[in-house]
């Protein structure tokens, strides 16, 4: 790819973070690039570059080569310089922008990119997120954190996520009335604690339910009562009502 096109990607990506619906700005999330253009088509990449917060439904239909329901089609090959290194029990702060809220469930999960499946259970769950009926969004809708697994949970993550590109921390949000899906992914590698350490022997960290600003208790599965079209794709066999 020529230097001018690279500069155009960078400029549009920077502009994309300030408009429309929502995405993750920290930690560094996957961005579109030449590899995504090859898989998903230049039209889809251009749309994301023009508006980095658009829902993935705006990119439909997509070719069979495009994994649109994983990281909204963004691929590792375009993001090798953005890989993070995490360890068992580490607390990871997130920053999101939500210029246009759409109420619905959301979560942050560790996803195996080869199978597009969650490893373990979601690390953070919002039963209700980005509620546009509120006078202002709760602070925890745009600034929140997740705690990575320890113990047996850490071992499962380490077995899958030792190599860059194998796993992502994926922020997933579905606007119920809008019928729109939003995804941002953070590439990372993972190291479990050394054998015998406190982090290695501790109990797995449960997901935490959050609902419009109020932290809740332990979530048993994905705490969503109404059936959601894309949420059910992601949580088939995991959701409890």
From TrEMBL:
Alphabetized Gene3D superfamilies for the sequence: 2.70.50.70
Cofactors required: Cu(2+)
Coiled-coil regions, chain positions: none
KW Signal (keyword) present: yes
The keyword Thylakoid belongs to this UniProt entry's keyword annotation: no
Leader sequence segment: 1-20
Listed InterPro entries: Starch-active_LPMO
Origin: domain of life: Eukaryota
Protein name (Swiss-Prot/TrEMBL): Chitin-binding type-4 domain-containing protein
Organism: Podospora appendiculata
Taxonomic classification: Eukaryota, Fungi, Dikarya, Ascomycota, Pezizomycotina
